């Protein structure tokens, strides 16, 4: 059965404006989740744009540090490289240095992927952590409150890369995914879990993302080649925060930098 997704995209001028918009969105979404459910479970991705966003959230000169309900946050990770937590390529290290060490987040509310372990073991331990926190033994999937994604120039998202096994995983929460094109292993949340989130949004910047983004949204459905096409949230809504370079091939936004698409697949 075909599914229709309402896509909203918001376009900003440059990396700084995009990062600030993402920080504002994290704040609003976290506050809404805390008001509704008493806590906010956030799942972060890595990358340069999230790093700038995290630095804004933790900057004492900005309003976010005082406004964010830090004590009610639980922090999770969408994916991780198969590296130790102090490695320069670790998503956890980037998040720790840019946000976790500077904001009043309870250490016991941060749930990292143990990338230093054998990949299958790291994925299994991460899944167990999530099930325990969500009390989901036997349940179908957790529901994160806010889940932020990036997108690669090859159309991948999380660590679900083209032509890799994670594309076809339907039953697990987290898996080890071998990525031959990078000759490495990654640990990633699976797409059936990602689409369960109360809110899913992509944060995408750069000229190299314009063509894959256009193909993901407006091209033929081919998730084996473009795994980002798998992200069709169960709530039927998908938000994209973009800079002008990334959005350059999409239908022009309105005067407020907003655009919408309806995608049925």
Automatic annotation (TrEMBL):
Pathway: Carbohydrate degradation; pentose phosphate pathway; D-ribulose 5-phosphate from D-glucose 6-phosphate (oxidative stage): step 2/3. One of its GO terms (molecular function) is 6-phosphogluconolactonase activity. Residues 15-239 form the Glucosamine/galactosamine-6-phosphate isomerase domain. The keyword Nucleus does not apply. It catalyses: 6-phospho-D-glucono-1,5-lactone + H2O = 6-phospho-D-gluconate + H(+). Its EC number is 3.1.1.31. InterPro entries: 6-phosphogluconolactonase_DevB, 6PGL, Glc/Gal-6P_isomerase, NagB/RpiA_transferase-like. The keyword Ligase does not apply. Pfam families: Glucosamine_iso. Keywords: Hydrolase. GO terms for biological process: carbohydrate metabolic process; pentose-phosphate shunt. It is an enzyme of class 3 (hydrolase). Coiled coil: none annotated. NCBIfam families: pgl. Belongs to the glucosamine/galactosamine-6-phosphate isomerase family. 6-phosphogluconolactonase subfamily. Hydrolysis of 6-phosphogluconolactone to 6-phosphogluconate. This is 6-phosphogluconolactonase.
């Amino acid at each position: 059965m075909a599914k229709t997704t309402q896509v909203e995209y918001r376009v900003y001028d440059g990396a700084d404006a995009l990062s600030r918009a993402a920080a504002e969105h994290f704040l609003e979404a976290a506050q809404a989740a805390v008001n509704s459910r008493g806590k906010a479970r956030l799942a972060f991705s890595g990358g340069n744009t999230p790093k700038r966003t995290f630095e804004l959230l933790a900057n004492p000169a900005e309003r976010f540090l005082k406004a964010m309900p830090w004590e009610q946050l639980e922090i999770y990770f969408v994916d991780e490289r198969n590296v130790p937590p102090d490695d320069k390529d670790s998503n956890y290290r980037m998040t720790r240095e840019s946000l976790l060490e500077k904001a009043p987040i309870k250490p016991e509310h941060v749930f990292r992927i143990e990338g230093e372990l054998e990949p299958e073991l790291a994925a299994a331990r991460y899944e167990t952590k999530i099930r325990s926190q969500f009390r989901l033994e036997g349940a179908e999937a957790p529901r994160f409150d806010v889940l932020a994604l990036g997108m690669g120039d090859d159309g991948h998202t999380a660590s679900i890369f083209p032509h890799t096994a994670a594309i076809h995983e339907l039953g697990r929460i987290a898996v080890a995914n071998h990525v031959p094109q990078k000759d490495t292993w990654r640990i990633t949340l699976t797409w059936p879990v990602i689409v369960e989130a109360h809110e899913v949004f992509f944060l995408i910047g750069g000229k190299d993302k314009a063509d894959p983004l256009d193909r993901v949204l407006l091209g033929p459905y081919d998730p084996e080649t473009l795994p980002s096409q798998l992200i069709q949230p169960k709530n039927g809504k998908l938000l994209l925060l973009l800079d002008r370079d990334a959005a350059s091939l999409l239908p022009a936004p309105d005067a407020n930098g907003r655009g919408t698409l309806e995608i049925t697949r």
